[in-house]
């Protein structure tokens, strides 16, 4: 098995919620994936609020998607 030493700041260590100094690559990857997923979700929520999509019903959202797809197919 190979070993890789990665140095990160205390801030990054805390931001990732790390609680031990030795991780497998798959553990680190999972932690980073969860962090990126959380950040993406937070950005999506901000955008839906900014553009008023958070107030739309599922029917309205589905209609918007259908209209977009139809316009894309005909351009």
Rg, Å, rounded: 20 Å
Class based on secondary structure composition and strand pairing: mainly alpha
Residue-averaged pLDDT: 92
Main beta-sheet annotation: none
Give the helix level as a range of percent: 55-70%
- Our count of helices gives 3
Strand residue percentage: under 5%
In words, what does this structure look like?
The protein has 75 residues and is mostly helical. The protein is 64% helix and 0% strand. The chain has helices spanning 10-15, 25-50, 58-73. The longest helix is centred in the middle third of the chain and has 26 residues, at 25-50. The chain is elongated.
Nutshell version of this structure?
With 75 residues, this protein is mostly helical.
Task: Give a quick set of tags describing it.
mainly alpha, 3 helices, 75 residues
List the helices and strands and how they pair.
Blueprint: H1 10-15, H2 25-50, H3 58-73
